[in-house]
Structure formats: C-alpha cells, structure tokens
Amino acid sequence: MHPGAMQRRPFLSMLTLSGMAAFSGANHADSIRKPIEGSWFEFQHCWEWEARYWNDQLEAFSRDQWRAKVGEIAGAGLKYLVLLSVAQDDLSFYPSNVLPQWKMACDDPLEAVLSAGDEFGVKFFISGGFFKEKIGVLPGEDGTHQRERALVELAERYGDHASFFGWYWPNEAQLSPYFEEPLIEYINASSAFARTLKPECKIMIAPYGTRNERDEDSYARQLEALDVDIVAYQDEVGVRKTRADETAAIYEKLRRVHDKVAQRALWADVEIFEFEGEVYKSNLIAAPFDRVRTQLEAVSPFVDVILIYQYQGMMNRPGTSAFAGRADSVELYQRYMEYANALK
Q1: Of 90, 75, 87, residue with least CA distance to 121
Q2: What is the pLDDT of residues 103-124, one digit of tens each?
Q3: Single pTM value for the model
Q4: What is the count of structural domains for the chain?
Q5: N or C: which end of the chain has fewer CB within 10 A?
Q6: Element (H, E) at 150
Q7: Quick check: is 201 in a domain?
Q8: 30-47 residue pLDDT tens
C-alpha cells in the first residue's frame, strides 16, 4: 500500500489500453519522458499524523466535491486511480453488510467516485483491504473471510460501473530481496477469488524494497508464479530510502526482468511527497517539483505507466471546489501541468 507511514510497502495488453507501445531494451533513452497517468486515491489516510492537512477535508467532502475531485484529476491527464482502502479501523467507506460505515458527509463516497470515473473516463483499481488485520500485515483466517465477503459485495454493488477496472491488494508486497512465500500465497489466493467475481478486472500490487539487489533469473521465476497483471514498484524517494538520482539504474534492472515475463506489466509508483519532519512520524507535504521531475524522468525510459503517491493532499488545481491539502499543493500542480503540457 502507499502511505508513507506504511513504510511504502497502486501484460502487454495493458499498454494498448493506455495507448502506449511496448518497450524493448533498444528503446531505452534518456530523452524519453512520460507524464503521470494515475495516482493512489483515498477516502481517509490510514495514519492520521501524516494527513492532518487533508483527512478532515476529505471526510467533509460532499458527493459533488468527490465528483469534482475525480474530474479535476482527469483534467490533469490521469487515467487510473488506485483506492488505498475500502475499509479501515473496522469501518467501511461505503454502505456495507460486512462492517459498520465510517461517518462521512457523503453517504456513499465509493459510488460517488465510481460514477465520476464513468463520467470522466477514469479507471479505478478497487482495494481489497483492510479487514480484521493490522494495516500492513497479512490477514489471518478471519480477515480473509471478511475480505472475501466484502469483495463479493463490492462486485455485486458496484460491478456495473465502467470505471470498475481492476483490483489492488494493499497489504504490502515486500521485496527483501524476494517475495516471501506467505505473501505470494496471499496474493494468489486473493487474485484467484477475485477473478471468479469479475474475470475481466486487472490485478495490481505495489511492492516496496524496490532498491534491493536480486538475481534477475530468480526474480523472473517469482514473477511468473504471481497471479497479477501489473507490478507498480514504489520508488521510495519520499520515504528517503532511495535518492532520485539512483532510481534509473534500479528500474532498468526491473525492465530486464519484466521483459522476460511479459505478462506482468511494469509500472512505477513515484512518491511525490516528503515528510514535514521525521520519516513516518510527521505530516506528508508536497515535494519540490524539481525533485519530482527528476523522479519522473528517471523511470520514464523503463516503465509502461507512471503512477504517483499521491494526488490528494499533494496537488490541487487553483480554485478547485474540492481542495485537500496545503497551499503549496497548488504550486506543485501548476508546475507539473506546465511540464506535462510541454510533453504534448
């Protein structure tokens, strides 16, 4: 999953869907620059001490404001939104028979954003968490049972939305330097169950530990064993585990592995935040654009799609009716839009 406090643990056919050509090693070049095509998205950030600048604002959003925020994000050129969670702290963010509901100004924010996604052409990955588990820890039997009940409910209640595009497994996929067997079992069991509900949906994980060295052939065998369509690797710059100038070499190695396992699309999860104070113990705020630009350009030659963690709290269009974050989020939005428009 993608909050900084989580310690940063969002197939070639996808390239056609996103209007992008497949990569080969010969196409890698410093001149390749890609725009941001998606972001993580949340109803509430799971660690309140990181989100004091936007959690209360999101909780007070009306249905119209949720619609406006999705429209604003689409207007910035983003096509994908990855729901971090549909429940947390034993409360759901939608009307559910599985859990009591989190009290928000909007009665059903999930319906609101999926309807907006239908309207604005945004594709959502729906989260499979968090149910009877400590955030960032694999669920036990009770959590698995509760999650499966919720996935059935989500597919039945919201599955007709064109914007219901995929599933996202938010329990952190750690590379240390490889996936551990219990994590692979969790991912594959979750995917197998979800594919019985909506077989057309794409499935994504977002590992951390991205910078750790691993044997390419051994890792390729692990990728082959994973039942996912997309692996969106966290660049871990915001959590200060990796420098922006180191990421190109890291993603180049990942590209070589994914070229061997073409059914697993390689996406990036670029962290556009920084901590106001100590890592994992202070508010997330917008990173300077010069750093963000370096991050985007470092991964662009090697990945199929760039996602960010995250638009909410870090970026706001000037004058938006759905403001969430600090004033400096407007500056990051404006500078990024100047950059993105220059790519067209």
Answers
A1: 75
A2: 999 999 999 999 999 999 999 9
A3: 0.91
A4: 1
A5: C
A6: helix 141-158
A7: yes
A8: 579 999 999 999 999 988
State the pLDDT at residue 27: 44
β-bridge partners, 265: 230
Residue with tokens 């470092």: 298
Phi, psi (degrees; rounded to nearest 5) at 265: -70, 145
In a domain, 28, yes or no: no
Assess if residue 296 is contained within a domain. yes
pLDDT given for residue 9 in this prediction: 36
Would you say 248 and 18 are in contact if contact means Cβ atoms under 8 Å apart? no
Domain that holds residue 151: 4-17+33-343
Angle among Cα 102, 85, 238 to the nearest 5 degrees reads 120
The average pLDDT across 148-153 equals 96
Report CA-CA distances (Å) from 55 to 19, 107, 316: 34, 17, 15
pLDDT attached to residue 31: 74
SS3 17: helix
